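>> received
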Amino acid sequence: MEKLFDNTEVAFAVKSNSEIDRAFYLFEMIKRQPLVKIGTAVTKFALKTHLPVEGIIRATVFDHFCGGVTEKDCMTTIDKMYTKNVHSVLDYSAEGKEIEEQFDLAMEKTLNTIKFGTERKSIPFAVFKPTGFGKLEIYRKITEGEKLDAHEEVEWKRIKERYNIVSKAAYERDVPLLIDAEETWMQGAADDLIEAMMKKYNKEKVVVFGTLQLYRWDRLDYLKKLHERSKEQGFKVGMKLVRGAYMEKERERAEEKNYKDPICVNKAATDKMFNDVLEYMFKNIDDMAIFAGTHNEESSYLLMDLIAKSGLSRNDKRIWFGQLYGMSDHISYNLAKENYNVAKYLPFGPVRDVMTYLIRRAEENTSVAGQTNRELELLKRERVRRKI
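>> returned
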């Protein structure tokens, strides 16, 4: 079992030779951290000044990490992955738009995904980001106990309505809903709202999932308290487990505003937090559902081991593995071949609007020790195997 993730033939089965080459050169570029920083700055400048770079972005980083501009664009990729038992989570990844019309559009995109989920077994979840449904500043004010003005009160009411509309649709159509996590200074308001949705729609089984960013040292305590409330009030807890993508920003703000750093002291502490939470949730699986969003092989092996020792089926509906599209195919496809539940987050949206997401992926890959080197090692091995 320990060698499962080394199988590159299975990992890259749906990739053509040219896609293997593109992935290899892309990760070679991402490995050079200064190049990522320069590329990020140049890309932001070019998009801001409307220089014609969209074609280059589309042919390289966009097509590697995204499914397309529209849901329809994504269908070829979705169908191809599903031939290998890998499911998709369609994620409308346009970021940075802070107007009501854009929030309503994000809600409509999520409702469309829920509808897709009833029609296609390949799309078992819907997803949205809290700031896709409302302004970060409103979440921040509520999290930090500041008073909203009259206009913001109306906006907050609308945010709560959007959450309820999509949660109700997910419940009625029996399509689970994953709600992402973001910065700590806005997350408290989102967590409370997600808990209210769990309380309303997770009575028989998990429909609404929150997200735990496990680079935060307080998350196991938070989960245990939530679990207690859920038992008292009669609802089930669903959580997507991730390590987190805002570490540098979090540390900088904590230092700047002189409060305790919310992030674990180092990667080893983060890994321990992830695995401790995973074990706690698995031990309480009758009250919970797990979506283990991880590119970490050790955490993936841990969950496989927990399933094996428990006697539960590998494809128990309460337990999912998840990775991002364009990353960790060696985990996703090898797990799927062994009949575990696996889903890839498949972002889509206009190239300009998805750039914030793409830049975060590139920066994340350079900051996680060993991640890019592991991708490159496996791509090299597959190129040798295919003689390309």
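>> The CA atoms of residues 138 and 156 lie 7 Å apart.
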